[in-house]
Every structure is written in structure tokens, then in C-alpha cells.
Amino acid sequence: MRQLLLITLLSLAVSSPAFAKKQFIDHNRLMDHGDGHLMDMDGGMVMGQNINTLPGGCDKIEAVEEITVHAGHEYAKKFPGRMYAFDIQEYQFEPCTKLTVHFVNDDNIRHQWMMHGLPKYLYPKGMFHLEVTGPGKISGTLIFPPNDKTYLVHCDISQHMEKGMKGQLKIGDGSGDLPSIPGVTANVIQDDYSGSIPEEIIKPLSKAAKAKASEAQANNSGFSWVMVIGILAGVWLAPVLIRRFKGMSAGEIISAIVEMLSQGIAALIKIVSGLIAKYGSKKVIELPKK
Fold first, then answer.
1. Does domain 21-171 have CATH number 2.60.40.420?
2. Could you tell me how far CA 15 lies from the centroid of its own chain?
3. What percentage of the chain reaches a pLDDT higher than 90?
4. How many angstroms separate the CA atoms of 63 and 99, rounded?
5. H or E element: which one contains 149?
């Protein structure tokens, strides 16, 4: 019966919505909130969409491009030490290009594809932003400015960029490479999987560990002596207490213990008071005789 109940509970847990893979949603019915901000009630969002307005310096749209970007844990497996990633880490387009990005989230959590640093007169907060919660697809369009610049594209969910979900997008020749782009540029702080720890880190740790070990040993030693004294006192007092409480009821034993404690505390107070009176009183200093 217990096994049957356990199997039933496990079946319910595995089949519950919390464990089931979410349904893939194509977010193509978005509500327009103005200023290029579109969203739906299923976790899809576009911010900073621009379909028609040319940035300053662009006389016309030089090219029309489309890309599909996937995001998820699966794409981080080729980068040791990373948890999330895009399937593409580097993009390059001509200035004044009109780009439509089809963003696909392959995970059961929320991911974003976001660009910062765009002209604020055209893109509110200088940002273009695609977001999908759970498995799904969303599309958004923007028009690049005419300058040669390298933009960071990333997921702004807490720790997702730090765990690998970022890339770089170059307009024209770009303005150089960004650091720590997985598979493209070197990390600012290189990962080390050799298992060795630099000497300058080991020495301070060793000193601290030794000091802590010495302190713990001293504490353990003191604790051991206290424990030994307690055991000896218990062995010595046990026969006395057995004879003292023999034949008493539980209430009488409690009353006797309380009385003994009171007497002990009174005796201790008397001893302390005597010591204070003896050593703590001010001595009378005799004045010199005239």
C-alpha cells in the first residue's frame, strides 16, 4: 500500500504543471503601448521598435536584413563555465540597415535580447529590447544609425549575462571588440580549470587556516576539560542524589532541587560579598602628625 501511494504521488508530481515543459508560444498578437513598446499577457515584450523613422545621418535604408537568434542553456555547453548563451555571439551589419530580429527562447525561464547605446531621440532610453518568458518566439525591428560602432547585446535578467548570455553587434567597421564575449574575445578574468591555486592566494589562506585550526584546538581542549570535570562530578554526585531523593515523589524532588539551588546561590553570594568587603574596601590613610 505504501509503495502504491508513493508511486501515485510521484506520478502526480511529474505530471504537474511545475514539472511539465511549457507550451511554445509564438508572440505575434502584441498590444501597442506607443513609443515602440509592445507586449502581451503571455510574457512577450518588445521595447524600442522602429520600423520607419530614419536615424539622423541616414538618407535612406541601405539594407533590409532578418536574423533568428536562439537563447538557452543548450547553447552554453560549448563554453566551459557558462550557464546560458545565445546561439550567435557576433553580428555585423551596414550602417542604416533595417533589421528584424526573431528571438527564440528555448528555455522554461525568461530571456532577453537587448541593445543599449542607441540614439535616445529615436529609441526611448537608448534601448532596443526583446523578451520572452518560457519557450516562445517574438520579433522586433529597428533601424541602425550611420556611425561605426560596436554594441553589446545581452540578456539583462540577473546573472544571465555574467553566466554567458551576451554578444557583440558591429555597425560598419565597429568601434573595436568588447571583452569577455564567449567564443569571440578573451575574458577579463580568465577561467582556470587546472585545479591549481596561485601561490599568492595559497599563502594567506594557509596562515589563516593555521590560526583558525590553533584556535579551534584550544577551544576543543577547553571544552574537553569542562566535559571531563562534568562527568567526574556527575559520577561522584550520582550516589548521593539517589540516596537523597529515594522514596520521594516527582513534586518533592523538584522542591528539594529548588531548595538546594537557592541555598547554593545564597552561599555563593555570601562568599562574593565577603571577598568584596575584604579586598574591595578603601584603606584609611593616616594623615601625617604635625
1. yes
2. 29
3. 55
4. 8
5. strand 149-154
